[in-house]
Amino acid sequence: MKFVKASLCLSITLALSACSEQVSVESHLENAKSYLSKKQINESIIELKNAIRGDNKNAEARFLLGQVYLNLGDGLAAVKELERAQQFNYAANKVLPLLARAYILTDSDADVLALSEQAAKLANEEHSHYLAYKTLAALRSEQAEQATESATLAQSIAQQSLYSMLALAYLELSQNNNDAVKTLISRILTIDAQHVDALMLQGQVSMVTKDYQQAALSFESYLNLQPRSGIVQLLLADALLKSGQDKAAEKYADGILAQIDSQPFAHYIKAMVAFNGKDFAKASEHAERALSANFNQFNLRLVAGASAFYLKNWQQSHHHLTMVVKYLPKEHQARRMLAVTQLELGLVGEISATVGDFSVNQAGDAQFLSSLSYKLLELGATSEAKKILAQHEASTVINAADNARKGILKLMMNDPSGIQDLQDAVKLDPSFIEAELALAYAALHNNDIKQAREIAIKWQEKYPEKSGGYNLMASIAIKEKKYQQAEQSLKQSLTLAPDNIFALTEQLRLARQQKNKPLSKQRVDYLMTLAPSNNKVLRHYFGIYRNDMALEKLQLAYQADNSDIKKAVLVAEAMVTLAQYKQAENLLTNLADTPKLPKRYWQLVVFNHRKQHDVKKVQSALERWLKASPYHIEPVVLLADLHANSGNNERALQVIKRGLDYHQDHLVLQLVKMQLLLNSKQIMPAKTLYKTLAVSAINDALKQGFLGRILLLEEKYDQAIVKLTKLYQVYPSSQNAVYLAGAYMGNKEPAKAAKVLEHQLTVEPNENRIKTMLAGIYLEGDTNKAIAVYADVVKKQPNNVIAHNNLAWLYLEQSKLDKALMHAKEAFALAPHIPNVADTYGKVLLKSGDKRAALKYASKAFDLTKGQDIDIQLNYIEALIANSRENEAKDLLSKTLPETDEQTQKKAKILARL
């Protein structure tokens, strides 16, 4: 009984509880609806959530909450609640259209299309509502046919429905019928000004038609209606940016980044705004953050590259601009930026491709190409500079200044046609003084005194009140060494323009050319009072005084302007002149990190190390020079020469090949390469290179000489003699004499070889290399002549091992043992590891009676050759016998296999003794 009561009480309690809970859920729903009617959105959300907490499966609460979220533009939250409402069987005619829109907001196009079967059961109005979203989803899924069907169906079931018009508008937009879209949107918004989907579409079509002002208004209206729509904030920011409302755009971007600091589109907006405001550091920072999030928009990449360019971050600029340059118009400024960036990075080979199709059709284009050519020329990239200049040449723009720049550049490249460009510039603008001045001095440089004088006279007549004509006439007189006339012209110049630096400097040059030291000092002292920081004046000053006082003046000028690299180099140059090598090295080392060091800096570094006889530092400096300025020819040639002189032809060739990578057709490098190939006896590569040189513009005698040396290496001596004779006749150097004599020796004509060498000694009587070779020839037939020549060589070259060794042998044959011993000892002291030297010393000692010492050096010679030299082996056996070591001698003699008749006879004599 008690059990029954208890059960009854429990049932009553549960029933009361359920009733109470039901009342609570209904109450929350009523409150929510009340709040919604008053547009108190946050309060309604709280009530609806409370209702759901009380009844998790309450379909109405789920629907209402989903509807609220959808109206706020929060697609994800709307999808969750509306899907639950549908799951709990809420009215399909209400939930399906809203769920379709929620899917649209979350880009769930497949889910929109999946609702099609259920939506077909809806009434016409609700069905057309769904069909608008289905049309959009089909278009976004690239299902054009399904989209057309959907829009057509919407029209057929409810033609005047707002959503039928919206479906048709989506379809028209996909077909680029923008005017039709605008008409349909206008009709919708006339009926319902707050139709959010129409406002969104209006904003989108306005962006397409570049009506950014209208797009911004549409997106702003949309955002006011659905404030939680993150995508519309971005679209609005973009529209504001493109309509020139940077501050307003940045405000929205900042709002987004306050919530999601990695949002790439917001960083894109910030980057664009910063770039427009010329805050390149900020633009670069935001652009990089957006790009790192894979937001690879073209404009963003362009801004990233341009910002890095203005910040001189060349690597970063190059990285970004190379990715977009192929999409840019020919005349786009970014092409220029990329070309300059490539120049700064030393990527010279890429520049012509970047500006290859650059059109010279507007102001500044030709000037840019001229400037680029000049910079390339400054780097030493002459061939690339010529390519760029050729583009300038092909331009149709006729402008005196452009012609003048082109002419000057051509003259810098040793192209005489530059004079014609200067003449054209003067014809185009007769008042263009600078062009005429350049033309005059170009003519003077080319020894066209007549043209230079005509211009000078014209100036004197046309501009009698100006000094230029008299300055030019003075330069002409100096060129002709008519110093009195030059002085008169300069005095007139200084009367018209007192203290003009050009005239004063020319007066100083006159005094120096006439070696008038007092006048030179007087004039340079005056110039120093007028222009104490002028580099040209400073160079003259030190050139005249060449002492510590002059160096101090240079140092003071440099201290006053320590950013002037030319002054620094001038100071270092003066230090080297005064043999202050360490001080010069310290100064030059301090400048080493300066970007784009001039050629003169590197020349001075190398020269200073050479003055200190520090070969390692010379090599290091040349390698650094080559790395810093790979288009400079000088370090290539010098470094190759350094390696060749140390006997490392292979490394020298590697350096030359590297130089040819940058200057493919450079004749000097090809000539050096040929010398190295021949010196290292690489016949086939030399023959291949000869084919190129044979059709080049070099002197025919050089071509004959190269072919002669190739034939010499191939041991075709009779053919080599013909070619090398031609070379020697035109270039009678000691080296060419050696080549020709070598060919005669190979052809077994020692008398003719001796004649060539004897003739060369009449030209260069102190050329010891020729004497040594000549003495070697005399060895075969005239011992006394050989001795005389070798004696002269060791007198002038006491460290000449060959001369000492051969003298020892010759004196030994004449039994002049004291002299033989002296030279043998000297030769061994100089080259103890040369087998023939040790062998000679041992032979002389044996003949002198010092048997034990003889055996020591004969043994050393034998060990050095490892038994491979038969003559040295036989001499060693003789030393063994002399020291009573017959058994060793017999054993070794039995293993000796003579190769010549002379060696056979000598072996027989030794065997007879044993």
From TrEMBL:
Keywords in alphabetical order: Signal, TPR repeat
UniProt name for this protein: PEP-CTERM system TPR-repeat protein PrsT
UniProt organism field: Colwellia marinimaniae
Keyword Signal recorded: yes
Signal peptide per UniProt: 1-20
PROSITE patterns named in the record: PROKAR_LIPOPROTEIN, TPR
Gene3D superfamilies: Tetratricopeptide repeat domain (1.25.40.10)
Pfam families listed in its UniProt record: TPR_11 (PF13414), TPR_17 (PF13431), TPR_19 (PF14559), TPR_8 (PF13181)
SMART domains: TPR
UniProt key word S-adenosyl-L-methionine: no
Per-repeat ranges for TPR: 196-229, 467-500
